[in-house]
Amino acid sequence: MKAEKRREEILSLLGNTDNPIPANVLKERFNVSRQVIVQDIAVLRAGGYDITSTNRGYVLNVKVQASRVFKCRHTFDEIVDEGVLIIELGGKVEDIFVNHRVYGRISARLDLYNRTHVEELYRSLVSGASKPLMSVTDGYHYHTVSAPSEEVLNAIETKLREKGFLIEI
Question: Which of 36, 100, 95 has its CA nearest to residue 68?
Answer without folding.
Answer: 95
